[in-house]
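If you are new to this repository, start here. Below is one unmodified record pulled from the training split, so you can see the exact layout before writing a loader.
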Amino acid sequence: MGRNKGNGVRAAIYGRVSTSNHGQDVEMQLVELRQVAAQRGWLVVDEYVDDGVSGVQECRPALDRMLSDARSGKIDIIAVWRFDRFARSTQHLLSALEEFRVLGVSFVSIREQVDTTTPSGKVLFTLIAAISEFERTLIVERVRAGVANAKSKGIHCGRPKVDADIRPALALLDQGRGLKQVAGILNVSRSTLRRRLEEAGEWPRTQTR
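And here is the target side for that same chain:
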């Protein structure tokens, strides 16, 4: 892998060509990315290359490894040749950029001339954050509207209540066993068992372990 001595800014460069791009060589992308890194004085910590991997695939080994390194704090900048070499969809791009903003990782796409290390480029992160917040708000509003509509029609919303025979649990508790132990014997979570006992008016009992 190519590495540069620079100003201590740790950069990752990412390249990809898909199986459908016959005759294309990922090296063309890497050459341009290395040149930009050298000009900017970045330290290229690694080159992440998905060669012959379709952009629509959920799992891309090099991309996944790069994102893992970014989340581990090993990368300051991610540089790509073009958006479509990196993201499989607009939503994927927006989601990734929002995560980079949170992680404090800059993003550069040399063909689109997007560079979030610059003051003007940081505006993109602000815009992405606003879009993401707007989308979350819309989702919450849709869920609330759906619940209200269902309730107006008499439809129960939420987790269905499960009728359960608590007699085995009561018998085990009467033997002096703790709640956690009884839950394990009956193969249910401690919180679920306690909720069932409370609903039946059988909790709290003298055994509280």
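Two things worth knowing about this chain: The two ends are 57 Å apart (CA to CA). Confidence is low (pLDDT under 50) at residues 1-6.
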